[in-house]
Design a protein that fits this description.
The protein is 30% helix and 11% strand. The chain has helices at residues 16-28, 46-49, 60-65, 70-73, and strands at residues 34-37, 75-76, 83-86. The protein has a three-stranded mixed β-sheet with strand order 1-3-2. It is globular. It contains four helices and three strands; from the N terminus they run H-E-H-H-H-E-E. The chain has 91 residues and is an alpha+beta fold.
Length: 91
Amino acid sequence: MGKVVVVTSGKGGVGKTTSTAALGAAVAKTGKKVALVDFDVGLRNLDLIMGAERRVVFDLVNVIQGTAKLSQALIRDKRLETLYLLPASQT
């Protein structure tokens, strides 16, 4: 069974996105499959930190609305084959 880790704070600029990317990469390096889900709708940055900003076609909102499948929206990291990103919507 998978595990869920949530990184959250009511304040911006405290390192949530950076911590999430680092933690996800560290776990993926052990060979475990990791899906990072960016819930910061309107102010997503996780795709930028992971170097995937030009690869976003579908996002979390598309999956929730049913206009895209999860498999279409997940972006596989180019460096770690077990690390995936589901970006938040930019709007």
